[in-house]
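Observation: inputs received (chain + magnesium ion).
Thought: call the complex predictor directly.
Action: predict_structure
Action Input:
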Amino acid sequence: MKLIGLIGSGSSTAYAPVIIWDRVEHYAKEEQLVVVDDSRRSMRFLGVLRLIRRYEPFLDSRKRTSYVDNPDLVETGTLPHSSGYVSIIGVISENGVVEPQLPPNPGSKVYVVESPTDLSLELGGGLVIGVHKYSGIEIPLDPRGIPYHIGVVGATGTGKSRLVKAFIDEVLAKTNYNIIVFDHTGMDYSVFYKDNVVEGSRTVLDISLITDMILYRTGLNRNTYEPYIMVSLLSYIYNYIREKHPELLQELIGSSSGGRQKTLVPKTPSFQEFLNKIDYSRLQEILAEKNIVWDITSFKEQLIRTLQNMRARDSSKIRLGIALDVYLGKQFFESLNKRDMLPRDIVGYAGNNRLVVVDLSTEDLEARRYIVSSVINELWRIIEEKREPINTLVVIDEAHNYACRSCGVSHRAITRIAREGRKWGLGVLLATQRIIDIDPEIRGNINTWLFSKLQTPGDFNELKGYMDLSGISENTLAILGKREFFVAGLMNPLRIPILIKVRTVE
Ligand SMILES: Nc1ncnc2c1ncn2[C@@H]1O[C@H](COP(=O)(O)OP(=O)(O)OP(=O)(O)O)[C@@H](O)[C@H]1O
Ligand SMILES: [Mg+2]
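Observation:
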């Protein structure tokens, strides 16, 4: 450890002024860990150096001195010195770092912690995603904070996704949590966990979502076209099943053919009957099992028949026909094929393998949100069934696409975890570039924040609203490098935000 100065007059249990020894002034950097040795009282305080300023007694901008009339006077000499503050973490004791009861004495010596061997701190065996930037001391994050939710924010390229990867590895290694990762780009996590990837494009979509996707892509008026599209989709499915698996139609409308009837050939339900009685969750299962094939030509034929039956106007028929060919095309219908997984399969995969990465990169935004919400809803279904903690962490990167106020189904699902997840061991980790794009209700329930250089000044004020930033200035954040993040909140083992450098993740 290197001596850098003395505690000045006016310390409290939270802050202590430091007068920096001029000869070693260049060693004193903001965010360094320091030990304050109050030898007279045999106490050692741990703290972080902050708000370092350079002063000169005669060059006070609010006082008139001879320098005002004669700037050349500086050539005869000045008396500059640096001073700053120690933001006090606590008193170093055998049981770790405990809350200080007294402020450090003026005159106590201040040392910079230069390496992990300088100091052994009992910080518990938590999740280590990196070390303190200057001292190299490991900062283990308390895993009990997982179900109280985690936010990772920083401008683009600061290393959020890599940090999250380090976090995932630690959770897998040191806790009993299962993890479901939604990989928005398909390049952040799928490449690292090749053996645990499930293609989001294998998830069965439901009729209302496919309708929404068609309406969104074509820009057709919902009031007019929603019924036509929905009924056409259902007729398509009905006809497909009637042709390929007629035995399933009875099952889909929930009529049991017990007793004597078994020997009879069951009557095929009409489309109207199918529409009235269909069991939609069974339908999803059948779609996953039987792999229904969608094709634009057959769908168009179905659409025309449906429009005729529903007595649609000619203009509606034309509009829909154009929309189908021009805005959707063959590709859209092909993207509905080869879907053989249900949300419960994804949750089951996580249960069996501890980790599942759902690659959402090839899906429409609406479909991505649907998949996120349906997987979360499945987790809630299990919780409601078993009434016991599920110990699962849901990781959502590029979270502004899912947790924004106008994000629809995924917003609702994430809000529920944020509000109620803690009771059931269900946590969410959201990573995003801009904190203000996350719905306030969700971000208000996030109790651990990891933040780096921020994209907008508003974000800094937002963070300040949630936690005591203990003298971290916006300027400090602005000059942070890649992989440098502050840890604050519940999982931080220290009581003030601390700067870590994330370990190498490659
Ligand atoms: N911990 C790390 N170890 C090794 N390389 C890193 C680390 N963190 C960041 N990098 C480098 O910086 C690049 C950007 O990191 P990352 O993708 O994690 O940033 P990001 O904050 O998620 O950016 P975006 O907001 O654009 O998603 C990586 O491709 C990698 O080259
Ligand atoms: Mg990223």
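Thought: report the result.
Final Answer: Residues 160-161, 188, 397 surround magnesium ion (ligand 2) (CB under 6 Å). The CA atoms of residues 203 and 342 lie 6 Å apart.
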